[in-house]
Amino acid sequence: MKVNIHPSWKLALSAEFESTYFKGLTQFVKEEYATGTCYPPGARIFAAFDRCTLDDVKVVILGQDPYHGQGQANGLCFSVADGVPHPPSLINIFKEQQNDLNKPYPESGNLEAWADQGVLLLNATLTVRAHQAGSHQKQGWETFTDAVIKTVSEQKEGVVFLLWGGFAKKKAKLIDAQKHHILTSGHPSPLSANRGYWFGNRHFSQTNSILQQIGKSPIVW
Prior knowledge:
Number of strands: 6
Number of helices: 10
Largest sheet: 4 strands, parallel
Enzyme class: hydrolase
Keywords: Cytoplasm, DNA damage, DNA repair, Hydrolase
GO molecular function: uracil DNA N-glycosylase activity
Strand content: 5-15%
InterPro entries: UDG_fam1 (IPR002043), Ura-DNA_Glyclase_AS (IPR018085), Uracil-DNA_glycosylase-like (IPR005122), Uracil-DNA_glycosylase-like_sf (IPR036895)
CATH superfamily: Uracil-DNA glycosylase-like domain
Order of helices and strands: HHHEHEHHEEHEHEHH
CATH class: Alpha Beta
Shape: globular
Family: Belongs to the uracil-DNA glycosylase (UDG) superfamily. UNG family.
CATH topology: Uracil-DNA Glycosylase, subunit E
């Protein structure tokens, strides 16, 4: 498959695209999209990489699956298109942002503005079958996105990794903690947030403080 992805990533991940597992993954995804409804739209599967080039990465936020409801997933983890109601996890992300930075709650759930500033909004699995959470897991996407995390760790310095929830925290082993900054907390989902594991983590202000300390411009969250 000819992968439509930003050239900076295409070069860095060329070994993945040529691998046997990725060819199998490609065939699986093609068949899934041909025989049923899947998200995000095919042209947006690699949107996170197109909005945030490898050269520009300053922050990485890890999600697990794309949203599986109609019109929700737009290729960036936790993000939805303009005008789409905010899913519960995104609501809690915005509530924490509001409390942390003393900013008004955003009208739009579209996080492309974050991506444009160097925030890689990466799901571990980049596609999903409609209304079936986790339906495209263990088909090769996790191998690919682990390679993405390793590539950022190896080729960049001073990146802030935000690992929210148990699944994301397991990815810490892929990151060189001597070169980068890792912030962890509970997941913003209602189950975790309502137990006190999310609110008050102050990851938005902490991230900007770290970026400024190392001479990088802060993110306008």
